[in-house]
Amino acid sequence: MNETKDTGQITGYHAHVYFDAETVEQALVLCQRAAETFGVKMGRVHDKLVGPHPMWSCQLAATPQQFADLLPWLALNRDGLIVFAHPETGDELADHRDHGIWLGTGLDLDLSLFE
Length: 115
Known about the structure:
- The chain is built from three helices and five strands; from the N terminus they run βαββαβαβ.
- By secondary structure, it is an alpha+beta fold.
């Protein structure tokens, strides 16, 4: 078994809400509600591929305390949208590759920019 990692190294979380041309408004409403409800920071709504993400997305940035409430809320309110969440530990490759959390169907990320 691998060595247990200390969760104290997590400085925050990102939740990426994925959408397409048909679900952009749904994603926008979901992200705005999350920002208003939990005080998380809502990033830009990208209608193009950004970073390692295989679909258009909007990022929600949360503290560890906010994320504890945000994740179950997203699980119940995503209404079919795919959400990819990951911790921020300073190791972007591991955060995306090894520590990711999927709500809905998991997709392949382009991790080459972290290598």
